[in-house]
Design goal:
This protein is an all-alpha fold and 111 residues long. 73% of the residues lie in helices and 0% in strands. The radius of gyration is 17 Å and the shape is elongated. Keywords: Cell membrane, Membrane, Transmembrane, Transmembrane helix.
């Protein structure tokens, strides 16, 4: 598996997680303080589009890493739970690292 598959998943995991936290903050201001309705709409739309991109990249990574359906589902759903994507991303990197071709985690060549 190429390193770029993991890299684009990682980028989208962080972007999706940050956007979800921003969206949660906007929702608190919208419903708690009755302000920021327009910004909440914009952030929710942006998060929705970015989450779809995250789903595509996570599914691509999962299919190349040959994950079980349950594990793939957990990774896909983690983009909807605030802060979960940060923790799931770390675990995915740790588990997928040895599968990368030609990366630093590949076994060294014998002399």
């Amino acid at each position: 598996m190429k390193k770029s598959v993991l890299t684009r998943y990682r980028v989208m995991a962080y972007v999706t997680a940050v956007m979800l936290l921003v969206l949660c903050t906007c929702m608190v201001f919208k419903y708690g303080f009755d302000t920021g309705e327009d910004i909440t709409f914009m952030v929710s739309q942006a998060h929705g589009v970015l989450y779809i991109v995250y789903l595509v990249f996570a599914f691509d990574l999962g299919s190349k890493a040959k994950w079980s359906f349950g594990r793939l589902l957990w990774v896909l759903v983690s983009g909807t739970i605030p802060t979960a994507a940060f923790f799931v991303e770390r675990k995915v990197v740790r588990d997928v690292g040895p599968l990368l071709e030609g990366g630093a985690s590949a076994a060294p060549a014998r002399a």
